[in-house]
Design goal:
It contains 16 helices and 15 strands. It is of the alpha/beta class. The strands form 5 sheets. A 4-stranded parallel sheet has the order 4-3-9-10, sandwiched between helices. It has a 4-stranded antiparallel sheet with strand order 5-6-7-8, with helices on one face. The longest helix is centred in the last third of the chain and has 23 residues.
Length: 488
């Protein structure tokens, strides 16, 4: 089998993957900040690194896959000033911040299960690793690359850059940052505007705070990943991944603080998936154009023409290379739905194919082509193209225009299942097109009957409909002009 080649964002080239301690592999991926329902943009990194996880396991590696949960320290606009995103949501809903964390963590995990994303080996939370983060801040202070200002601790980027290159991951140059950030307001505590917080002194109204040698406060957003990756993967590990939107400043800051705290470059291969866009603009809740995954599954969103099964979403994402932009459209999703249905029907045909005393198709070349696609930086569009090449062969076998022996048919079934289910992570039980279109129509009818019951003041029936739907995982949200529904 050919060597696995991965694109390293740091070196900007494809490199042969050589683990630090084979057959063991350490992967750290930045997970979600849990202050809202998961949207389509969350699905792409989850599926991208699930694919990597699955393929490394398939190749026989022992993988420790760490994906964190950010539940503290992530401030508005990814900055060092402003309000904590989770605390802000908690104040709006008048509940404890950790209730927000638990609710949206649970919702994220449920969505990942629906997308058939494997659970990571370890899923640490930032709030559960405050001592490790305080220890790392102390190391950086002792090394002379941080300073205390009014109870907060900031990383000294300019000093770091004298012996290292701050910006080597993102391609930024410190002189450019100086010229574009020097005049920003609200940076009085910092020596330079581009210095970043390692520890922030909590304002009196700040809810989430911990004691430290410098002040009652909370860790900076960037610090958690350095502290937790070090704890679970060591001072140096194989792969760090995340979305392209994290490349700067989050991952750039990670590189700097880890280098000083650990005395070495911690990450050997940096991998970044590209964004999901809509009309060429990044899709995300903060931009007001995010589509929640529950809305994708229910079809309950103005941009959606219909509902889409989770496996259709997964297949849609895998049809584009992880480093390319993926633009949302109903047409593309419906094409994915049809393609997935065609693929699954062909797999279902395999056990019933007639066998012969000879094989007229070349399974070895097909298998090699499939592996070559995966080994070339996880090129799933090419792999899927090869799967559909075999779909054509399966149809020819069904028509008797090609032939296959029983042992070769068994091999084909095994290999098709490995590529489709074990590696790509698709499931057989996806809804058919007819079923996925039927649910919204049924729900419209049920809600119409419930609205009629309310109009007739039959509130017992109205409440019973809500309760019965809730028991099967469908929630109802009443509005002035009717009601909305969602799965979950």
């Amino acid at each position: 089998m050919a060597e696995l080649i991965l694109y390293n964002t740091l070196t900007r080239r494809k490199e042969v993957f050589n683990p630090l301690h084979p057959p063991r592999v350490g992967i750290y991926v930045c997970g979600p900040t849990v202050y809202g329902d998961p949207h389509l943009g969350h699905a792409r990194p989850a599926i991208t690194f699930d694919l990597l996880f699955r393929y490394l396991l398939h190749l026989g590696y022992q993988v420790r896959y760490v994906r964190n949960i950010t539940d503290v320290g992530h401030l508005e606009n990814d900055a060092d000033e402003g309000r904590d995103k989770i605390a802000t949501r908690a104040q709006l809903e008048q509940i404890e911040p950790m209730e927000i964390v638990q609710r949206y963590s649970d919702h994220y995990h449920k969505s990942m299960d629906q997308l058939n994303v494997l659970k990571p080996s370890i899923e640490p939370r930032a709030s559960g690793h405050i001592p490790e983060q305080i220890e790392m801040v102390a190391k950086i202070l002792d090394a002379g690359y941080a300073y205390i200002s009014n109870g907060s601790v900031y990383f000294d980027v300019e000093k770091y850059d004298t012996k290292n290159h701050y910006g080597k991951l993102s391609g930024r140059v410190l002189e450019d940052l100086l010229s574009t950030t020097r005049d920003l307001d609200g940076q009085e505590e910092k020596r330079n505007p581009f210095d970043f917080a390692l520890w922030k002194k909590a304002l009196p109204e700040h809810i989430m705070r911990w004691n430290s040698p410098w002040s009652p406060g909370f860790p900076g957003w960037h610090l958690e990943c350095s502290a937790m990756s070090t704890k679970y993967l060591g001072d140096e590990f194989d792969i760090h991944g995340g979305g392209m939107d994290l490349l700067f400043p989050h991952h750039e800051c990670e590189i700097a603080q880890s280098k000083i705290a650990n005395g070495k470059d911690s990450v050997r291969y940096w991998m970044h998936n590209n964004m999901v866009t809509i009309n060429g603009q990044k899709m995300g809740k903060s931009l007001g154009n995010g589509i929640l995954l529950d809305q994708m599954f229910s079809g309950n969103h103005p941009l959606l023409e219909k509902s889409y099964d989770p496996m259709t979403i997964r297949f849609f994402i895998l049809q584009a290379h992880y480093r390319s932009t993926l633009d949302f459209s109903n047409e593309a999703l419906q094409a994915s739905e049809k393609g997935l249905s065609r693929l699954m029907k062909s797999i279902a045909m395999l056990p019933g194919l007639a066998v012969s005393n000879e094989t007229t198709i070349n399974l070895d070349i097909w298998k090699t082509n499939c592996y070559n696609a995966l080994n070339d930086d996880l090129n799933t569009p090419i792999l899927i193209a090869h799967l559909f090449d075999m779909v054509k062969m399966i149809n020819l076998l069904s028509e008797g225009r090609e032939r296959i022996t029983k042992p070769d048919l068994d091999i084909l079934i095994q290999q098709f299942h490995q590529f489709t289910f074990d590696i790509l992570g698709l499931r057989e039980e996806q809804l058919t097109t007819g079923e996925s279109e039927l649910l919204p129509k049924v729900m419209d009818m049920i809600l119409s009957l419930r609205q009629e019951a309310k109009k007739n003041k039959d509130f017992a029936l109205s409440d019973r409909i809500r309760e019965e739907l809730g028991k099967i995982g469908i929630s109802i949200k009443d509005k002035k002009d009717g009601a909305d529904w969602e799965i979950g």
